Amino acid sequence: MFKLHKVFDSRHYRRLSSVQKEELKEAREKVRQAQQKEPERLREHLETFNDAVIAIIITIIVLQIQPAFKTSQYLEFLGNIVIFIIAFFIIADFWYDLHLAFSYFIFKPDKITAICDFCLLATYRFYL
């Protein structure tokens, strides 16, 4: 991580004007505040990414349903619709469990949490 206090040693700091010192102090405070907000931002980004991946999975499942062009294909079409509905509710259950995990257990995610989340999302494909 970039730390502003390493940029200026005491020798350089003394050369700054009072306005520059105040600007440096404000910049350090902004960086500190941004670093404090980073886990919350990562949590929001992971939740959004999870929603997007699950939406893509559902879209791919819908695209696999072939429309019935002949009367003899309606039974197969209805079977595909039933399979889609079952898969949809399985995926919805995964999404709900993931949402609960982020709501109640994951307050400040870190890089390891993100990697585990990505691995979990990658395995969803194998459940369908």
List the topology elements:
Blueprint (H helix, E strand, L loop, with lengths): L9 H6 L2 H46 L10 H31 L6 H13 L5
Question: Can you give a write-up of this model?
Answer:
Helix 2 (18-63) runs antiparallel to helix 3. It contains four helices and no strands. It has 128 residues and is mainly alpha-helical. The protein has one domain. The two termini are 41 Å apart. It is rod-shaped, with a radius of gyration of 25 Å.
Short précis:
The chain is mostly helical and 128 residues long. Helices cover 75% and strands 0% of the residues.
Features:
rod-shaped, single chain, 4 helices, 128 residues, mainly alpha
- State the helicity in percent bands: over 70%
Unreliable segments of 5+ consecutive residues: none
Report the biggest beta sheet as strand number plus sense, adding barrel if it closes.
Answer: none
Enumerate how many helices there are, as a single number. 4
How far apart the termini lie comes to: 41 Å
